[in-house]
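Annotated sample (chain length 819).
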Amino acid sequence: MLTTGAPIPYWQVTRLDEAEYNVADMPMEGEMDSTFFLTKDKNFIPHTYPCRTAYIEERRGKELAEQDLPDWAEARNVLPFGSPFVDLSGFWFRATKVRGWARTAVKAEHSGTARLRLGICGAARAYVNGRAVAWLSPATRNAMDDVEFDAELTEGHNEIAVQFEDLAERDAVIRIALTWLDGPSAAASHTFPASDDLVAGVEAAIEGMSLDRKCYDGQDIHLQLPVPFPEDVKGSVRVAGHFMSHDHDDVDVEIPRGATQVRIASSSAFPADYRYFDFSLSCGRFTAQARLGAEITWRSATGPAPERQQDRISEALNWIARHAETDTETALACAAVGDADALARAEKIITTALPGIENCFDCADFALVPLLWTRIVYADRLPAALVARIDAATLDFRFWMDEPGNDVQWYFSENHALLFHTSAYLAGDLLPEAHFRRSGRSGREQSRVGYKRLVEWFDHFEKAEMAEFNSATYFPIDLKGMTALFALAPDAEIRKRAGAAIVQLVTMVAHSAHHGVITGAQGRSYEHSLCVADTLELTGLARLLWGQGQYGAHVNCLAQVALALRDHGLEFPDLAEIANWEREDTAQEWTFWQGENAFCKLYHYKTSETAMGSAALYRWQDWGYQETLIQARIGREASASLFINHPGEIVQSGFGRPSFWGGSASVPRVQQYRDLAVVRFDGVAPQPNFTHAWFPTPVFDEWRVDGNRALARSGRGAMVIQASGPLQLMSQGGSAGHELRLAGRQGIWVVRLGQTDDLAGFSDDHLLELAETTDGCLVVEDATYGTVQFRRDGKVIAEGRTLDPMTWTLEGNRSEIPL
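Output written by the structure step:
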């Protein structure tokens, strides 16, 4: 029965009616805001675009006009899977008004007045049994508001419909929440065209299903069904990358009644990438959807890297040209390779990409930079008509927010600002006499404006480097802009500063690399950048530069780095020993800070068999965004990793920021000393009521979960985890065999890495019992380090040393510690 605060979770949703929401072209005021994500207001991101201002004027505080209920025949059935709301979130590259209807039901034991709460971001009107009863129109981007209302229920089935609309800009949170507060005895029901028993059977089957691996290297992909479907199932699976991906594959699937495992396809049929598997499954008259994710690696097919760097450069360019996704970075590699097949693919990719640039889609700047490189260097390898279209798109592009436009391109983050200014600078130099429509400038003038802004950008970088610290997603975007400037800038000053910035970022990557895989706290992260190893672009960079790692199909900078090395004189210091740390008798400790006003202090420690990085004294107990505050690896298996966070939403593979894996709803207190770390969460409602760790048991050589402890070994690398309560290894659902959960929003995780062949003995040596003093100091007695004090002021004291994050520098300090 429904109790106070219980969600009403079973929904049907009509097909969304989507229409571009256009306002008159106009400039915006503003400048780069490197710390835009450091919000105190539950992840509400600042900066309002003209389209949002217009929508607020049109909709805020104004009722949606009453409408007749829709035809529900084609409505999509949405099962909750633990979520308290129906989530229609996604990514829209232009401002889009989204309208639709959703409905659910309540079964009352007798008639009476119910008190309900409706939550929405945009605008909504609620109908109970066909009668309009409540409305709200906050028109707030990605932040839910709610209204309470009374509704007269009849005995038995009561249908509650919600008419809704919202303005979707880029990453858009579109959610509908209906909560029971009070009323007659009642139960949540549904409006599905199926019996309760069939719905319950399908829900149990989908909620329990998982892929048989989270990382495939040529194996067949099987769907595991610990709870079989009650009837035969027919359906389809769309296999695609993340929201910036352009390619997908569709697979039909049939699941016999009672089956516990079904083959989907061979993993070798899909690109080397983290892929999402979107299922649409029909069981009898009932159809439902689900999403699972897994990494597809081509490790075995690709093999080890060539010894010589010039051979690795050639390998990288050819691999990208033949196998990477449809992206202008791939087109650049194709043009550089230059054979007939590669040039045909380059033409096809550019033709596909141009509409997004011509219409100023969000993230069009990501596509424009490598396209300009291709146009500047390889125009003679492209058809003349295509070159003319590239030039026309360039002249019509909006290069900064002070130019008039009607788009929702994100200008404010460091990576986007760099790419906009790089594009303006290079495009103006390419077409010096042409007229740039939006700015009204000549190309020569446009280039000079871009130059001035790049000088300011590098001034900021050289003082603060990256607010999106260590981000495996955004470092490649930064390198995209920097390498383009190094290779193509007409001014020696810009080229010199870009070269120095490239070396600095790559040096950071080398310090946090562990045998080809990046490990460390990240300022912004996603599921597809955390639950992976081989296909991360920085892993491909490690292969190119230091000979360890693999390639992934989604590339942003790798072709440009290869070309800068091959054709433009880019040189790096010898970082291979640091990146591929093999010294068994010595560890490396590295401390530094990043971001404006040194807002993030970072610590990293690695041995030949372990690596762990964390953020020190970072926003403890604040609401989080996309930060991952601790990450670790053991052994030589690329996928043998660990990270710990507080999920931002219950649904896996969703679009939240933070999401289930990407980021942390509450920012934990994290402190680390060498191979030892403590992670303390202190979350609040309505954040999910558990914290969790990525713990990929299939890739470990041995592992065990017992009560409050979890152990794992990969090669000679080992980890012991001690939690403040019982740990649950998930055995069903999308994270089966890969997720440890600790119940409650408040919880403590203690992590100890080390080198051993005897996991049980290592565990016995490291009990990881935690004591807390009256002044908030957390104390661990460690078998090797002795007493380790994690003080409330951020200092860590052990082995006669004091680590004080407030003394760390932007340049960083690298120490070698004997083992």
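Annotation: The longest helix spans residues 443-464.
Annotation: DSSP finds 17 helices and 45 strands in the chain.
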